[in-house]
Structure formats: C-alpha cells, structure tokens
Amino acid sequence: MKSLIKVNINGKDYELLVDHNWSLLDLLREKLRLTGTKRGCEEGECGACTVIMDGKAVNSCLVLAVEADGKKILTIEGLASNGELHPIQKAFIEYHAFQCGFCTPGMIMMAKALLDENPEPTEEDIKKAIVGNICRCADYTNIVKAIVAASRYMKAKSN
User: Domain range holding 45?
Assistant: First the structure.
C-alpha cells in the first residue's frame, strides 16, 4: 500500500507517494537522496539517523514516512545557510569532535535540537541530551566542548 504525503524538508515542500512500510530514514536516503542522515542500527539505539521533526530530535529509523505527513523536517543537509556552515558544524570542526564522521550528522542534529530548546546548556545537560547518540571513534569530551562552544557562537551571532 502507498499513501501520498505532504512534508517540508529543509525548507522545501514535497508531495510524495510512499510505501506504508518505509521509514522516514528510507524516504530521506532512498527517495530524496539526502544521505547525510546515516543508516546505523535501524533500532533507534545509535542516533546516527537523528533528524529534527517539528522541532524535536527523532530517530528517523523509528518514524514511518506516513507519520511525517504534514511535518517539518530538518536534516544535516539543511543546516548550513547560504553556503556558510552552522555554528554547531563550525564548532565540531574547531574542536575535533569527530573522526570517521559516521555519527557526526546525528550528533550535530541532536545538538541543534538541544540548543534550540536550551540555548545555554550545562555540560551535564549536553551529556544527557547526547546519551542516545553513539560514537565509536571520537572523544566525547571534544563533542561536549564543541556543543558548549556552539552555544557561545550562537549566542554571539544572535546579539
């Protein structure tokens, strides 16, 4: 079975015919070729597929594409603006908060959701927010430092 859904992804409106068994991850990667969102465990345990749906971080592997009907989705591809990296992306580079990069898009999207909700999180707030995002290569210390720095960058940019 298929359904027609309307969804806004990275600021662009789409009308898409989707299979009922497709996940949002399938829709993003296979149908729209937005491959920044990574396919990891497909069980909602690793966070590699994290996107922001209507302002909240979600594991796109656990959301059916039909559940995204009428929703606003932000993926890693939609984070940069006018060719300029988002402050979170800049901070991850500056603080060497990644190695292989596989988990990085999901980690950055989780950080974005956190900073949207709490612009000045403590290190403890950050650690709690990223607990569902597994990184096998990098040092979590650098990831936390990058998110703290991103908070400062975003605050300075808004002033």
Answer: 2-78
